[in-house]
TrEMBL record:
Membrane topology per record: Multi-pass membrane protein
Keyword Chloroplast: no
Localization (cell): Cell membrane
Name of this chain's protein: Ribonuclease BN
Keywords per UniProt: Cell membrane, Membrane, Transmembrane, Transmembrane helix
InterPro entries on file: Virul_fac_BrkB
Primary location recorded for the protein, binned into one broad class: membrane
One GO cellular component term: plasma membrane
PANTHER family registered for this protein in UniProt: INNER MEMBRANE PROTEIN YHJD (PTHR30213), UPF0761 MEMBRANE PROTEIN YIHY (PTHR30213:SF0)
Keyword Protein biosynthesis recorded: no
Listed transmembrane segments: 38-59, 106-126, 146-167, 187-207, 219-240, 252-274
Length: 333
């Protein structure tokens, strides 16, 4: 008779909550979040260079005004997340400067270097997710850094391919639907942004792990990360608006500090969500993913793989194994 899985109860929820908090503290969530925030701030110019430099070639295919529309949409989205000072003094000038010179930079060595530098933020997020699940020994650090670079390139291709459609899509759809539905489309922007953010975090949790969990086991962590980030962003925007109105500022350092705080809370939210997924996995272990079970099934069912393993394990066919077998055993230490 198979063992039945215990249903979640208040006791389990309390244990998962305590485990999430204690493991977050043990994994130094504050220092990891600060590291992710630092690399996010440092990676912003090369990240924008890679994205806008590629869009400078792709966007004109959809019309001469597509690239300016993408820039306006990017700055508008930044206004929805960051404070006004961060957008006006850091993000918007950086976007404008890079957009004016990005087309020539794509064919230079600096663009290749920007890919490596721009992937540093992705690498910090991948490291924090892997550490939260205690899977750091399963992937070599160099391989993990190259994997983060691969994720960054994939993200760059996805953004370049979808940015014209995202900008052009709602406008074209709004021209052919009634006014009431166009209002729904306009007011549904922020919910769609939150849903897209949650899906993006869940995909990061899925692909970052050497031994990934089933996708449905990552939903709660992604929802927690999105909730924490949105709440922290709203609170930080309110605090920065209030502190500015009082006249107490840090002078020229106020805007960089504000951007670093936004980046810090982003890393904090991602790592906290990963810690929740790890705590749930410890309390209710999930079965292997379908891909892992498929590989195991193919290995057990394939006669060729079986013969290869048996051949390598045979002392006659494998001289190294034969030499190891005839060598005298060392005394135990």
């Amino acid at each position: 008779m198979s063992e039945q899985v215990a249903k979640p109860s208040r006791h389990h929820i309390w244990r998962i909550t305590l485990r999430t908090l204690s493991k977050s503290w043990d994994d130094s969530i504050f220092s990891e979040s600060a590291q992710a925030g630092f690399w996010s701030a440092l990676s912003l110019p090369p990240l924008l260079l890679g994205m806008l430099g590629t869009l400078a070639y792709v966007a004109p295919l959809f019309g001469p005004d597509m690239l300016p529309s993408i820039l306006r949409q990017l700055i508008s989205t930044a206004h929805s997340v960051f404070s006004r000072s961060v957008v006006n003094e850091i993000i918007e000038p950086t976007v404008r400067d890079i957009a004016n010179n990005a087309r020539g930079e794509v064919v230079s060595l600096g663009f290749i270097i920007s890919l490596w530098a721009g992937s540093s933020a992705i690498s910090a997020f991948v490291d924090s997710v892997v550490e939260a699940h205690d899977q750091t020994p399963l992937r070599h650090p160099v391989r993990q850094r190259l994997f983060a670079l691969f994720l960054y390139v994939v993200m760059l291709v996805f953004v370049v391919a979808t940015a014209p459609l995202v900008v052009m899509g709602p406008r074209k759809v709004g021209e052919h639907i009634p006014l009431g539905l166009s209002n729904v489309l306009r007011y549904g922007y922020y919910p769609a942004l939150i849903v897209g953010l949650t899906i993006g975090v869940m995909i990061l949790y899925r692909v970052a792990l050497p031994e990934p969990l089933p996708s449905h086991r990552l939903i709660l962590g992604a929802m927690l990360a999105t909730t924490v980030f949105v709440t922290a962003t709203l609170g930080l925007r309110f605090y920065l608006g209030w502190i500015t109105s009082t006249g107490y500022t840090y002078g020229a350092l106020s805007t960089p500090i504000a951007f670093l705080l936004f980046a810090f809370f982003g890393g904090f939210a991602i790592m906290l969500g990963a810690e929740l997924n790890a705590a749930i996995q410890e309390e209710f272990p999930a079965p292997r993913t379908h891909a892992h079970r498929l590989r195991k099934w193919l290995f057990t069912r394939s006669p060729a793989l079986k013969r290869t393993v048996e051949t390598l394990a045979s002392p006659i066919a494998n001289p190294a194994t034969q030499q190891r077998d005839v060598a005298p055993a060392e005394p135990p230490r």
